[in-house]
Specification:
By secondary structure, the chain is an alpha/beta fold. Among the domains are: 34-168, Leucine Dehydrogenase, chain A, domain 1 (Rossmann fold, 3-Layer(aba) Sandwich); 186-348, NAD(P)-binding Rossmann-like Domain (Rossmann fold, 3-Layer(aba) Sandwich). The protein has 14 helices and twelve strands. The strands form two sheets. The chain has a seven-stranded mixed sheet with strand order 9-8-7-6-10-11-12. Strands 1-2-4-3-5 form a five-stranded mixed sheet. Substrate binds at residues 69, 93, 361. NAD(+) binds at residues 189, 220. This is Glutamate dehydrogenase. The active site is at 105 (proton donor).
Length: 427
């Protein structure tokens, strides 16, 4: 992957801030690499009677501030380096949101759309059978991510509970409501993106009403970011871009007077593929994959995959764009960051912008511990308060130290992790 290796990218971002903070070599040595990595093989009996063996991963980057936390991704192109990078970013994400958790991430090399429900369940249970001694509410708490969903988390929680011999809902978050899940979790990440966009607009003196956004992705984060941009801010979303699993390529679905995200949700399958024929019949223009990037909008929200705004593609971004809100993990490469810095584009970095999901996961764990569950409005109110406070801690650092928002977010996050490591006597 060369320069787009996500783990090398995560390390480069860390190194830049470590230099600015003057971190000593011992601290750097701990934080540049994960503390623990697991790579295992999961044999699964397929529906046709054959046995297929899948590669599984779990990486625990740092747990100085609390149990490791992070999703499990199922993707055909999953690699250990992707999981390492995401685990590293989770450490910073939990720290910048100021929740008492560390960073972890899991993965399985598989295209989930090729499996039946029974095969998915057996693979979920197989993953837990390999990892159950090294996860738990006080150790490492997985969650859904790309390619996984609440039902899969329920199977995993059930398998862990069987192996432990007791009901342990707090081992995994992102569960369905009937199995220890939290209200507000579905919309938490996308709405969290919009809470940070709202605060950025206040800072920049932009009236959100009448603003326009272009979004990459139409999975859970992008769907609720689109709904939130319209319903919370009163703005317009002109397009979303998403992967079509039938054509094996991405398209941008555009409506200049504004898309209807709830209509698009109704014609989107569980893997995030929009029904092209129904979209066209409803008046949507279908453009190439990267058309979202060059739209003349106020806000760009990359909410799909890493490495999409690069040294080359950044040139396509309209000078009209005032804010880039990173709903995805690692969507902007260091080369693109240099260009955006020069332009003065306000970037809300990924591990601040998309921290709504992990914050709500933390709330779910708290509710599991108490065995007492909050109303949706209470969850979203607490989420808004947490992310607003996190945004201003980063913004205040950026202004005081005259640094780029990404560097400020790293400074806040790394500072909190290093403080915990020192208090615990690690360094």
């Amino acid at each position: 992957m060369g320069e787009l290796n996500p783990f090398l990218m995560a390390q480069r971002q860390f190194d830049e801030v470590a230099d600015q903070l003057g971190l000593d070599e011992g601290v750097r040595a701990i934080l540049r690499f994960p503390l623990r990595e697991f790579h295992f093989r999961i044999p699964v009996r397929m529906d046709d009677g054959s046995v297929r063996v899948f590669d599984g991963f779990r990486v625990q980057h740092n747990d100085a501030r609390g149990p490791a936390k992070g999703g499990i991704r199922w993707a055909a192109n999953e690699t250990l380096d992707t999981v390492r990078a995401l685990a590293t970013w989770m450490t910073w994400k939990c720290a910048v949101a100021d929740i008492p958790l560390g960073g972890g991430k899991g993965g399985v090399v598989v295209d989930p759309s090729t499996l039946s429900d029974g095969e998915k369940e057996r693979l979920c249970r197989g993953w837990v059978q390999q990892m159950w001694k090294n996860i738990g509410p006080r150790m490492d708490v997985p969650a859904p991510d790309v390619g996984t969903n609440p039902q899969m988390m329920a199977w995993m929680m059930d398998e862990y509970s069987k192996l432990k011999g007791e009901y342990v809902p707090g081992v995994i978050t992102g569960k369905p409501l009937g199995a220890g899940g939290s209200l507000g979790r579905t919309e938490a990440t996308g709405f969290g993106v919009i809470y940070t966009v709202r605060e950025a607009m206040k800072h920049l003196g932009i009236d959100p009403k009448g603003t326009k956004a272009a979004i990459q992705g139409f999975g859970n984060v992008a769907q609720y970011a689109a709904i939130g941009f319209i319903e919370i801010l009163g703005g317009t979303v002109v397009c979303v871009s998403c992967w079509d699993r039938h054509d094996r390529k991405a398209y941008t679905y555009t409506k200049d007077d504004g898309i209807d995200p709830k209509f698009l949700q109704s014609i989107t399958d569980q893997y995030g593929t929009i029904d092209k024929a129904k979209a066209q019949a409803a008046g949507y223009r279908i453009e190439d994959a990267n058309a979202w990037l060059s739209k003349e909008v106020d806000v760009l929200i990359p909410a799909a995959i890493e490495g999409v705004i690069t040294g080359e593609t950044v040139e396509a971004i309209s000078p009209k764009v005032k804010i880039i809100a990173e709903g995805a993990n690692g969507p902007t490469t260091p080369e693109a960051d240099q260009v955006l810095k020069k332009r003065g584009t306000f970037v809300i970095p990924d591990f601040l912008c998309n921290a709504g999901g992990v914050t709500c996961s933390y709330f779910e764990q708290v509710q599991n511990d108490m065995n007492f569950y909050w109303h949706r409005d209470e969850v979203l109110k607490r989420l808004d308060e947490k992310l607003t406070a996190a945004f201003h801690a980063v913004l205040d650092t950026a202004v005081a130290k005259k640094v780029y928002m990404r560097n400020a977010a790293y400074m806040v996050a790394i500072g909190r992790v290093v403080e915990a490591m020192k208090l615990r006597g690690w360094v």
